[in-house]
Amino acid sequence: MAIRRVLRMGHPLLRQVARGLVPAEIGTAEFQALVTDMADTLHDYGGIGLAAPQVGESIRVALIEIRGGPTRYGELAAMPLTVFVNPVIEVLDPVTAGHWEGCLSVPGLRGWVERPQRVRVQYTSDRRERRTLELQGFNATVFQHEFDHLDGHLYLDRMTDLTRLAFEREF
Ligand code: NI
Fold this sequence. Notes:
2 helices, alpha+beta, six-stranded antiparallel sheet
């Protein structure tokens, strides 16, 4: 196990489109070592999601773990630590709602972002199983935020009103 350093905004790797994994790459010792490092890193930094590009690996892998209930970000439905490989998001309802988002790659800031609140996610699990999830509300926002990292986007790119960007200490 190892805690990795999370890359911060300005590092070019955060702006790259990450490559998808082929099935043979999923579940290998190298893959499992990366997933373990990402879980350790996520726990150490105290986040709810982490995408592989944030720890310097430009591949389409993300981890999400939601404890549920009221958080500093808002009300969330719980989800155990889950590994998403090659996730694809489909918007089920284009109506958006806003939430305050934060990001381990943009430490110390919070920004108000409007996103669709009903989405379907298709992905491959860490056991190479094809899976589908439907999400709503703030959980839908969390997934869109994490998977945006795989396309080189940060939540700041999604903001339409920069007056609603604040330092946590002033927030
Ligand atoms: Ni982020």
